[in-house]
């Protein structure tokens, strides 16, 4: 199918992209539509470089427009006649430069292909997502069916209890009536006794049946309880753990809240049924009454199920985080942080009636050197529905701080006597200086990537290695969360090659914690990778998101890719030896015609903060023979014209009107000195010997500037000074970086405000005395 026909059949969202593309006069959509077959058959890429071919295509285009105009005359399409005549007049401006017209049409065709690729990719992603969602939906549908079945059985039990009560009332009425009657006839009296025995036997059978039904109901509730607590909640906690380190996992709690609330409501109703049985037994009991024998066991079982459900329903919805941190779970002393808790059992009667208290390390080990902290600020709040968009029961703490307890001082953390429910955050790292954020975040990444036990106190004492699939996925999440574009397979393979060397399969390879964050200090793997991430997020996000930066490519791979390409092809890659830097290499040719790969010294954030990288690429020049300046960057790898790739980012103003004029007085002409190239600073991984470039000052073509003193441009060739945020040169004392894995959690405890109810007690944690849950059971 022709390209234009494919575009016309795309969904509306891509049709809108097409309309936005042709919302300009360079190539009117009418021309693209009526000449689509002819346009798609021509060699516009060759015409963009071949003046003669471009002129031929230019003339044929005008002829085709004449033919189309004649057709509209015959069809009496007045408006289309006018438009086609106007388009032809506009195209006359390309008479002196037909190559420009060819480049323009080529640009539009490539943009169309991008739209088609986006649509294809979206379709593939949707297909994969549908498969995954089908599995999730199947599990959810199974739960929904069981929830519906449970609610139906509870309704049936309500009917059963009414029948039981009516049957007992009938017996009681007849029996009381019989007692008031003076029956003298012995035979009649015996008949009445037989009748009452029959009625009491039926009542007894009904009680037994009701108790059996309650047992079956509790079996189903227990099954659902296990599914929620041991499967669904555990899976959500793991998704949240991964989401904390960048994974695009769904951590919405609304569905879980619906399920937890449904089961809790059913358990509350079972407790009401048991209370009704107690009431009936109080009115009428007899020898071997099954209710007296079985109710205590049913009551205990119901209370245990409800207790387990409520304990599990109190969760940390949003993990502790600072507003300006690298990510959650890294907290700094005396700096505010926030955390949000949620009770998944949504009971409106509890709104503002239950308090949540935040504390740190309630069971801190009594070991030398273990530092303890107090939580300061408004650390007690009531669970309420006002702070949740979905109306859930939440307590959102936004202004908490940590302060270290002095030896022998500080308020104790065991002053809370009423604790019914408790939720623990994921392990947090506490730092005392912002320069420690980088290494702290490395610890957060490693722990949450690997550990399934959030209370593993010995994790870093005997730190396990990560498999390459785990590690590569985690690295990709960092880019995905920061820039909305993760790492592709080729980029991950290059990183694996850096870590493990050349291998056919990296699936069985493992990365040790020491290799990630300890080896070769201060420039560890994580420092290098994070430096790139910060640079991309700060200065290169759009270029990265559009896929223009190949990024993770080593020198040998770079050469193998470029040497097969035409002269002027270049690629963008991250520096392997300079922290937080990017460079580019391009194909040149030697005197004998052999490909010669040249590389510019890396650009750091110092350079990128002065001038955008796309402007560097746009203005980059070297001196060729006879000192003629030339931009050697022509095609972005593999074969995209440079201006097509980066044109949309260029500033419209040029020359003296450019906002970057004070930085590009030299137009960034980095001049290669033939046969005497020498780097000012050794960069063995980025620059092969004899490939360094040096800048010159002054413009060759700007005569107006000749009388002014040449202005020195800060050159990427100068020695790089690492950013203190990206280098361990500012690393604080090792003891100041505290990994709280010795029961390292922030605890949020629910305290009950209201008076106890006598009919039910909920066992507290840690062997504390039994405490009432108050109005939760009203």
TrEMBL record:
Q: Where is the SH2 domain?
A: 544-650
Record bears the keyword Acetylation: no
Coiled coil listed as a keyword: yes
Q: What's the chief localization of this chain?
A: cytoplasm
Q: Which keywords, in A-to-Z order, does the entry hold?
A: Activator, Coiled coil, Cytoplasm, DNA-binding, Nucleus, Phosphoprotein, SH2 domain, Transcription, Transcription regulation
**InterPro entries for this protein:** p53-like_TF_DNA-bd_sf, SH2, SH2_dom_sf, STAT, STAT_linker, STAT_N_sf, STAT_TF_alpha, STAT_TF_CC
Any idea where this protein resides?
Cytoplasm; Nucleus
GO aspect biological process, one term? signal transduction
Name the Gene3D superfamilies on file: EF-hand, SH2 domain, STAT transcription factor, all-alpha domain, STAT transcription factor, DNA-binding domain, STAT transcription factor, N-terminal domain
Q: Its GO CC terms?
A: cytoplasm; nucleus
Single Gene Ontology MF annotation: DNA binding
Entry's family note: Belongs to the transcription factor STAT family.
Q: Cross-referenced PANTHER family, in alphabetical order?
A: SIGNAL TRANSDUCER AND ACTIVATOR OF TRANSCRIPTION
Q: What name does the UniProt record give this protein?
A: Signal transducer and activator of transcription
Q: Which organism is it from?
A: Larimichthys crocea (Large yellow croaker)
